[in-house]
Structures are given as structure tokens and as C-alpha cells.
Amino acid sequence: MSKLTKLQEMIAKLHAENDQDSERDWLLQHLQANNTPEMMAQAKKLTHSELAILTQLAQAGEAIPFKQLQAQSELSQGMLSRYIQRLAKNRLVEKFHTPENQKAVVLRITARGQEIGELHHQLHQRQRQNYEAVLANYSEAEVETIAQFIEQMIAARENL
């Protein structure tokens, strides 16, 4: 097998694994124990961005202003707003205004949203531990070589 063929096979495997199905399956498996079919169907439809938002709100531990969440997010204001609308519609997040500032939108995660956000955080902690275990098998120099290789392959793909 040529080096190029081997690389193309590995890239195909990476793409197949990177479609978030394994994350969603793990999340649903861990939610299944004490949730209704409605909740399971709802969780199945969440995008990765929505899961990330729930995780941020769950980690905050308190209600936070929309603007603060936006400052911490890589999403545009419009996209974040659309995701928050969907999460609020699904009763995973509550939107409200404080008496001090009726214009500013404040977000509070619901108990259902908290559970999903915490599970998503646990998932990413487990992934990080797995990645660190794999990386422990390589020296800093080897990891640097791998990183350079990946950067060069990305550049080669973009130079069409």
C-alpha cells in the first residue's frame, strides 16, 4: 500500500468519526437512564453548537447576560441568538430581563439544560483524557513533527 493510499484511508476514517455521531450516541446513552422519550428526541436534535452553549451555561453556575455569553463565544451574535431561541423554545434555557436593565437579555439554564450541559462537559473531559493518554506515547519532538505534517497536508489541500 502506498503512503498516499494509507493517508487517504486514515483521512476517510477521521471524517467518518468526526461527524459528531459518536458524541451524540454517548450523550444519549448517558441521558437515557432517567429521561422521557420526549427529552431523548429533543436531545437527539441538538447541534454541537447548542451543546457547547449548554455546557457554557452549565459551567457558569448562574444566570449570565447574553452579551457576556456572546463575548465568550466564537459564534456571531445572530447565530448565537438563533441557537438561544431554539434552546429556550425547547425549555433548556430561560431568557429574562432584570429590573435594573429591561433591555439586556439574561440567560438561565433549566434543570434539563443543566443535565445535558454537564454531560456534554463530561464527554469532553473524557475525550481530553483519551487524547492525553495517546499523546503520552509520543515525545514533544514527535508531536511537533506530526503537527507540522498536518499543517503541510492542509496547505497542500488548499493549494489547488
TrEMBL record:
InterPro entries cross-referenced by the UniProt entry: HTH_MarR-typ (IPR000835), Metal_resp_HTH_trans_reg (IPR052067), WH-like_DNA-bd_sf (IPR036388), WH_DNA-bd_sf (IPR036390)
Keyword Transcription regulation part of the UniProt annotation: yes
Name of this protein: Transcriptional regulator, MarR family
Keyword Electron transport recorded: no
A Gene Ontology molecular function term of the record: DNA-binding transcription factor activity
Top-rank taxon, per record: Bacteria
Pfam families membership: MarR (PF01047)
Entries under PROSITE patterns matching the protein: HTH_MARR_2
SUPFAM superfamilies attached to this UniProt entry: Winged helix' DNA-binding domain (SSF46785)
Domain HTH marR-type positions: 1-155
Keywords: DNA-binding, Transcription, Transcription regulation
